[in-house]
């Protein structure tokens, strides 16, 4: 008898994918609604994104293992939706892979330069080498197997958790009530107008949905296991985001976010601004390490989803040749793009949000509606009936509204 992979492994794949670049931008994008508002936005987004992940599972279970979006959407919603969905999935996964290679490549370059340089002998390997090394090393795990990704992601997340608690532990110790409550702050006193604008970045930070079909295969269609790992994985992400909000928004006053916002939420700008309020010498180093682990584990999760998606769509088998072909189509385009345009991280995350709303919120709800009509019996059904379908579509529409509102400057913009 084959033994089941552990629950922990699946939860790690989910949490590893979710916790990533989106999270690093959360405190800045929620500066307008500030701490309590951000808790509400985070909880709402967590609930909706977890539920939509479960909806993908429900629809997926009507199809053979390994069937991913392409198969399921085409059958349930038709060719038109499948085209829209396929384009938005590919767009999000590819552009995130690109974003991870640019930022992960930059950090790799920095670390290797530091390691190989000695007094009087400065080594500069360059951004291209950094990106190539980062991408090739991680891509090898994906090419090898899902199990290898699971193992390595677990190691990365362990490192990430340690770095996270070391850095935010220091920050949480110095949280000040008046900063957190913004009670003696000068400047802008309104919060509510900025609630909508906080949604899309939070949506990106709870994105893991490309991995649901992979998990169905991984747990050999054991629905209970997949549900548990989606719940556990997304709860871990939620917990980490709340602590992160507390660490940042409890130290850096709301009125001081201006320079960070001016730099599009750049993480080093954030650390610099924080530096005026606490001692960030070692915290800065550990936070950089944390960001690196977060980016690497998201890279693994996202490209695993993309890899399975491509293999399913182009009918590549699980042989060495099949996997090599899928790997080339997965990694080569974003790698080449990142070598040509090495600095496009934040712009990429922005576009990812809009496209992700479509396939990670709206399409899952439509899939469940269609599959409940088509199949009378389901091995698994998401709670909440038709109301939940409506609730998730509303969430998606609010996000699209927020994105468009920001694009066309129709929403009030918090500038610190
Ligand atoms: N949650 C990931 C991004 C992501 C979005 C959608 C699907 C998969 C991953 C991050 O914050 O980095």
UniProtKB/TrEMBL annotation:
Does the keyword Iron feature in the UniProt annotation?
Answer: no
Keywords recorded for this protein, A-Z: Amino-acid transport, Cell inner membrane, Cell membrane, Membrane, Transmembrane, Transmembrane helix, Transport
Report a single Gene Ontology molecular function.
aromatic amino acid transmembrane transporter activity
NCBIfam families in alphabetical order = araaP
Judging by the UniProt lineage, the source's domain of life is Bacteria
Q: What is this protein called?
A: Aromatic amino acid permease
Question: Which compartments is it annotated to reside in?
Answer: Cell inner membrane
What's its job?
Involved in transporting aromatic amino acids across the cytoplasmic membrane.
- A single Gene Ontology CC term: plasma membrane
The UniProt entry's GO biological process terms, in alphabetical order, are: amino acid transmembrane transport
Coiled-coil ranges (or none): none
**What is the recorded membrane topology of this protein?**
Multi-pass membrane protein
Q: Which family does it belong to?
A: Belongs to the amino acid/polyamine transporter 2 family. Mtr/TnaB/TyrP permease subfamily.
Note the Pfam families from the entry: Trp_Tyr_perm (PF03222)
Q: Where are the transmembrane segments?
A: 7-25, 31-59, 80-101, 125-145, 152-171, 191-208, 229-247, 289-310, 322-339, 345-368, 380-402
